[in-house]
Amino acid sequence: MTIIHSGDHLLGREDSDAAKIVEDAFIREGVQLILSSRPKRISRTDEGKKIILYGKGGMEEGLTVDEILLGVGRAPNVEGLDLETAGVRYDSKNGVTVNDRLRTTNPRIYAAGDVCLQYKFTHTADATARIVIQNALFLGRRKLSTLTIPWTTYTDPEVAHVGMYESDASQRGIEVDTFVRPFSEVDRAVLDGEEEGFVKIHMKRGSDKILGATIVARHAGEMISEISLAMVNGLGLKAIANVIHPYPTQAEAIKQITDIYNRTRLTPFIKRIFSLWLKLGRKGN
Question: Is the CB of residue 130 less than 8 Å from the CB of residue 112?
């Protein structure tokens, strides 16, 4: 199998460290990756179907395969609904236009799910449907922008994410501290033979506020919810540090991140105080 991808790494939405782990797993399983390339033309030959690829620097190369599976993405199904008559604005690429309360340009009509959302996930569709019910039927004032949306890419290992990436924070002028715990240093992951992966948490610099997180692990989709819960409820790493995690579990990696964070709070002055206190304690004994 060969995967041709126009980006410089797979999973273009995710950070490059996470994508690299997935790429390495594919390569170990015998999948050939051709990155930063696009199909230019396809022809049928006696050997099979020949793809001419256009890559970086204008270089062209040929690849002959048995079959071609093309990923073309998704488009909202808005044709033939007579939305113009209803006064509902839409376009064929982005779908139905809604405001932050999911109301369309017709104030009597709301929309939810893939037909109007940037994040086209089943769980996001469910969350926005609940917003629509509250706002349309019960005079609610809930906003789409208040949602904290996690997602998981179901590769092996899985890649789960919630909140900002470091690049997002940089674009918004927010300084961050990033803490990483590789699973090669987590006992349960070592016992399971699943050392490949990590927990990465981005914090607002100078505080314990969690801005975002990425987890790469066999069951990352289950693990990301703990961080999502903390973010939704305004809880920082200090709160997670107070939670006892069962040992041995792979989720203990999150707890270990809090230990790394707590060590950074020991300023040189506080370290000197502790050292002096310990010396006085030894003299007292």
Answer: no
In this structure, how many other beta carbons lie within 10 angstroms of the beta carbon of residue 73? 5
Q: What is the pTM of this model?
A: 0.86
Tokens of 208: 């314990």
Two tokens, residue 46: 């006696």
Cis peptide before 157 (omega within 30 of 0): yes
Q: Compute CA distances 124 → 32, 117, 128, whole Å.
A: 33, 9, 6
Q: Find all residues with CB under 8 Å of 51, minimum gap 6, and list them.
A: 4, 39, 41, 42, 62, 63, 64, 65, 68
Residue appearing with tokens 């922008």? 145
Per-10-residue mean pLDDT of the chain, 285 residues long, equals 89 91 94 89 89 80 88 86 94 94 96 94 96 94 95 95 94 95 96 95 94 96 96 94 94 94 73 66 59
Name residue, tokens 């200090």: 238
CA neighbor of 101 nearest in space, from 146, 158, 39: 146
End-to-end CA distance of the chain: 69
